[in-house]
Amino acid sequence: MSYKGLPLVLTAAFLLASCGGGSGSGSDGVMTGDPLSGFSFDTPPGWTQGPVMSRHRSVFRFFQSPVATSYIMIARSYANGHRNAQLFDRMSPIAICGGHNATFVRRSGKMLSIHYSHQASDMVDSTWGKVRILAYYYFPTGATPDPAAESAIRSVCPNGGG
How far apart are CA 42 and CA 121, in angstroms? Predict the structure, then answer.
């Protein structure tokens, strides 16, 4: 399995690490476990599940598109992070999981980094009690977003519903 674009995703993961904690915590404060533990997620058809990573106080899971140009990253942290609207092209309130409040965020490559101007991202940011779930979809700048991936990042829901 090739993860050619994984450096971009890892960069984003490390930047998110300051957002808070994840699904479990070791004595050193590093989060462990699967970020989707206790949550459902509709993986797009043909996409493959990649590694789980822990970094500081967040935990991440990756998914790769069949053509290896797009990625989904699910991050879990404590619900104490904040968003800086200046970093995004667009932010708007949406409802997921049967009416639960969430925020949709779009960033073009120029908003990610000069080094990753070939990538864009869409994100759904949701909070469930003390848990914050960030579902990112990274795709090539200028490409039409994959409807199945767009639907997938909106599909995160606690097991048993919202």
Answer: 18
Report the pLDDT value the prediction gives residue 148, as an integer from 0 to 100. Answer: 96
The fold for domain 6-158 equals Protein Transport Mog1p; Chain A (3.40.1000)
Structure tokens, 94:
């949406």
Cα–Cα nearest to 74, from 118, 141, 22: 22
Give the side-chain half-sphere CA count within 13 A for 147.
Answer: 0
Percent of the chain with pLDDT over 90: 37
- Overall size of the chain counted in residues: 162
What are the extents of the domains in the chain?
6-158
The H-assigned helical ranges of 35-146 are: 109-112
Q: Comparing 23 with 117, which gets the higher pLDDT? A: 117
| pTM flag (> 0.85) | no
Do residues 99 and 161 lie in contact, with contact meaning Cβ atoms separated by under 8 Å? no
